[in-house]
Amino acid sequence: MDLLPEISRPFRADDKSFLRIDGKGIWMPLDVHSLAIPDVKLIRTPRFSDARGYFCETFQRADFAARGLDNDFVQDNQSRSDRSGTVRGLHFQRPPFAQTKLVRVLRGRIFDVAVDLRRSSPSFGRHVAVELSSEGDEQLLVPAGFAHGFCTLEPDTVVFYKVDQVYSVENSLMRVLVTGGAGFIGSAVCRRLVLGHGTAVVNIDKLTYAANLRSLDSLAGEPAYAFEHLDICNRAGLDRVFAKYEPDALIHLAAESHVDRSITGPSTFIDTNIVGTYNLLEAARKYYDHLTPERRSRFRFVHVSTDISRMLGSRHMTCQSSSRIVRTITVRTNFQRNSFH
Known about the structure:
The chain is of the alpha+beta class. It has eight helices and 17 strands. A six-stranded antiparallel sheet has the order 1-2-10-7-12-5, with no helix packed on it. Strand 3 (48-50) and strand 4 form a beta hairpin. Helix 3 packs parallel to helix 5 and helix 5 packs parallel to helix 8 (319-337).
């Protein structure tokens, strides 16, 4: 029996592009392109096709090193996303566990994004984005110091990537949702988390009379900061934000607190302080239920009420004070009913 496959042209000893039987003669030149941020590379490797299908060598360390890409990859990761429009990331790890990633698509298509978080870099805060597909023979090299994420463009998409550092919970970029982050206290919390601690923050605010976006001007252009114009009474919107950003914690500051307004328009206080808080708790619970055990152990829901002790000691209750007391009781009751902290 002839075990050798049919070939379309004869073997030549000096042909470097021919796959030899001993496995030593294959030579697949890398096509490496620097993108708008030069440290991010788009890498193409050729496919060799025959009647059976194709063969493609996606990684050979010596060839990569010869092009200055000498990374010691220690782990391979693979993800499958069932639905088109699924967002994964942005993910980032701090030194000494900062990761270089080599990303390719095994099935489907993705919109792939890398954000430069290196403060000393001239491209700090900028990003590059490319479309990768299983048919494109392309890989994206994302250097250490970049946040990385992607959005699937087709259902049932499978992404494979190599990393040169193992996953480290302690060194991952923590992401916190802050409600009411455009208020006096909330804006200070956002600034402190992003600028003081390097924490990624998603600010959720309805932008009512108490909001002041100018108090957040110092965060303009910060890649670790995002703003969502959203009412916490909007349950579908909350579910979308949890799914999009995958937070590690939530700090709940949003509340109606002006006493005079509670006399003329009490329904707003009931909606925000009670209904909104309940919606937020339910959205957090739904999100928490789908976390891995490891991420559940780290997730926190922090409820802040600045003047609850003064309200409880008062003999004259307004809609403002009573709604905020019920708000706090609602949170405590849910903490007892659910298992998240």
